[in-house]
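Final report, closing paragraph on structural work. Over the funding period we assembled a curated collection of sequence-structure pairs, and we close with a single example.
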Amino acid sequence: MGVALYLNFVGTPDDRILGASQRIFYVHMGTATTAGLAFTVTAACSILYLVTKNLAFDVVAAASAEIGTVFTTMLLVTGVLWGRAAWGVWWTWDPRLTATVILWVLFLAYLLVRGWTESVEPRARLSAVLALAAYVDVPIDYMTIRWWKSIHPVVITSHGIQMAPVMVLAMFVSMAAMLALYGAWMQLRVRLGRVESGLDVLKQRLRSRMEE
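Its predicted structure, as stored:
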């Protein structure tokens, strides 16, 4: 993370057009990559839960969805800041921005649904289905700037990356730093999630016995 911050604020020059605001872009790309990975992990673990009924997969799916939603919030904030400098407006209903907001809302809904019930298996099953439905927007979000007319820049093309080498380095180091943060955060959140899931199972068993 220290290397990423150094490259972001010291090791790269200002952009010829955007000036210092270009530095927001490196954080923006890191959050975008990490959010995409987080939701992919959620979708994969949701499938595994539906197949195996193993609650361990539900715990990982929920943890990754929470963290992915945080990174998507960061993605939207950095996107708004960068867009203000690049386009002169705080917000525009560009296809990429719209798809990202939809993705954010879908996973917020996923998290809200999980908080509505302590019934472990029904919650896990419904959450898995919702996660897979929400994940459909991830590839759509990625492809929007290729499928539709968009003012959002296409940085990575079939001809390479349209940036100076030092800026490319800063972008990839920022991505690596964000992914490392995701990995560390996931370890902590999964541990807490296992405790929470165990308590929910215990509460459910106690309620069942009291009702007998």
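The CA atoms of residues 24 and 82 lie 6 Å apart. Residues 165-211 form the longest helix (47 residues). We thank the funder for supporting this effort.
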